[in-house]
């Protein structure tokens, strides 16, 4: 029986209104009633995930967990930090300067805020309801570092997917220091080396005494690939991008807007009762 489910949020669990949806909520609650851990697993920061945790009925609860920053931090939902891997400031500075050279809008994630740098109106509209931004202060990320900020990741924004891939190529010399993935077909997510959703799933499973064979992951995009591979069973919702489909054991008939997560749970977890 599956005991741990790690599930992406945007374009997987959440519909176009950034809500969980009734069918998904019902299936998740049935899993929780069985003692199965349903763990929201996202590139978002912990603070940005609170609205979703409240909708799931998991906000503030001990014994329920969240994986954020693509695996960069793992929380018990009562606020207890189980693990965190910071991005060293010299690396953050290099990535930020490269983004400036490429003329890209960026999101700079620290432990408690997300700072916006030259995001377009399209970027801001796309992120509305997902992320609350603070304008990057005068003095940039050096000012943040001097005032004690701890960096988690930096995200480049570009709605031109081909250009996004070129941006990734231009960071090839930083490959040994970073984990780079793509989300929503418009964001280049840059974490420190060793940080991934797959690593987060494996760490949490060990902490909870759950065997790899008892884990399931659900996602849609390239930043989900590592956890789809790490879990016993990897599931893609119907709108999953082509690049991750070969790594999936099952592709749902339903997309994120029509209960794809519920379909996965109904197929793999709930029939075992």
From TrEMBL:
One Pfam family this sequence matches: Hydrolase_3
Protein name: Haloacid dehalogenase
Species assigned in the record: Lactobacillus nasalidis
């Amino acid at each position: 029986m599956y005991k741990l489910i790690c599930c992406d949020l945007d374009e997987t669990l959440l519909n176009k209104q950034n809500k969980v949806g009734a069918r998904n909520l019902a299936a998740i609650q049935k899993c929780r009633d069985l003692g199965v851990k349903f763990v929201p697993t996202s590139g978002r920061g912990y603070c940005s995930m609170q609205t979703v945790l409240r909708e799931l009925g998991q906000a503030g609860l001990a014994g329920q967990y969240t994986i954020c920053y693509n695996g960069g931090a793992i929380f018990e939902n009562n606020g207890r930090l189980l693990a965190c891997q910071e991005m060293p400031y010299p690396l953050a500075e290099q990535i930020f300067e490269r983004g400036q050279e490429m003329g890209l809008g960026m999101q700079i994630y620290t432990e408690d805020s997300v700072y916006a740098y030259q995001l377009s109106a399209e970027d801001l509209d796309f992120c509305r309801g997902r992320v609350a931004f603070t304008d990057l202060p005068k003095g940039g990320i050096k000012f943040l570092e001097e005032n004690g900020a701890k960096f988690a990741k930096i995200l480049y924004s570009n709605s031109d997917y081909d250009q996004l891939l070129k941006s990734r190529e231009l960071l090839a010399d930083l490959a040994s220091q970073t984990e780079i993935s793509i989300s929503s077909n418009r964001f280049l997510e840059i974490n420190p080396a060793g940080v991934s959703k797959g690593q987060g799933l494996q760490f949490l499973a060990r902490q909870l005494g759950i065997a790899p064979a008892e884990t399931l992951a659900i996602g849609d995009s390239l930043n989900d690939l590592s956890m789809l591979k790490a879990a016993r069973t990897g599931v893609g919702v119907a709108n999953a991008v082509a690049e991750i489909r070969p790594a999936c054991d099952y592709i749902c008939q339903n997309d994120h807007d029509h209960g794809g997560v519920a379909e996965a749970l109904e197929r793999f977890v709930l029939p075992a009762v």
